[in-house]
Design goal:
single chain; two-stranded antiparallel ribbon; elongated; Hypothetical Protein Ta1238, Chain: A; mainly alpha; two-stranded antiparallel sheet
């Protein structure tokens, strides 16, 4: 468990921060950038949740996802080859599997797409699309990190599924897709 008695430590005043294993790295290190972007996705989901309060099922899904994203941040903060890697909190296959089950259930009632979707429709859907795009950026960063050093493969899978989940959930909350905003290629020529 984490206890935060003091919010500022002055430890980062020289442009460095500590990873979960205690190692100091630059604040612009790709690992820090990666879990920072996961945190940004979590914040975007928090904004979406402001509009999900009337839908207990959707809000419960988003609540679980927010907690998972903190797990993911902890996973990415503690290098797989670092000195505290044993016993570190890691994303597990069951978390990815849950996203897949939810995607399948949500998608079952949606009409097939005939075009790409523009972010919009309901406020909740718009925020879910924002969270999806931030999640995609986090996914790009985690794959770049994985090319340079060991990363939990379930972390990569989780972000990939999460972006799909947020897309399908966005369609679901857009009245089952009927309020989706469809792209019209060349529509403004």
């Amino acid at each position: 468990m984490v206890t935060l008695n003091r919010i500022y430590t002055r430890g980062g005043d020289q442009g460095q921060t500590s990873l979960g294993d205690g190692r100091r790295v630059a604040k612009h290190d790709i690992r820090v950038e990666t879990y920072g972007t996961v945190d940004e996705a979590n914040a975007a989901i928090g904004l979406a949740r402001l509009h999900s309060l009337d839908d207990a099922s959707t809000d419960a899904m988003l609540s679980r996802i927010q907690n998972d994203l903190f797990d993911l941040g902890a996973d990415l903060c503690t290098p797989e080859d670092g000195r505290k890697h044993e016993g570190a909190l890691r994303i597990v296959a069951a978390q990815v599997d849950r996203l897949e089950r939810e995607i399948d259930a949500l998608n079952a009632d949606l009409a097939p797409l005939t075009s790409f979707i523009l972010p919009g429709g309901t406020p909740l859907a718009a925020y879910l699309h924002l969270a999806r795009t931030v999640t995609r950026r986090a996914e790009r960063l985690v794959t770049a990190l994985a090319a340079a050093e060991p990363v939990n493969p379930e972390a990569v899978k989780y972000l990939n599924r999460l972006s799909d989940h947020l897309f399908v959930l966005g369609r679901h909350v857009n009245d089952g897709g009927s309020r989706d905003v469809l792209w019209v290629p060349g529509g403004n020529r």
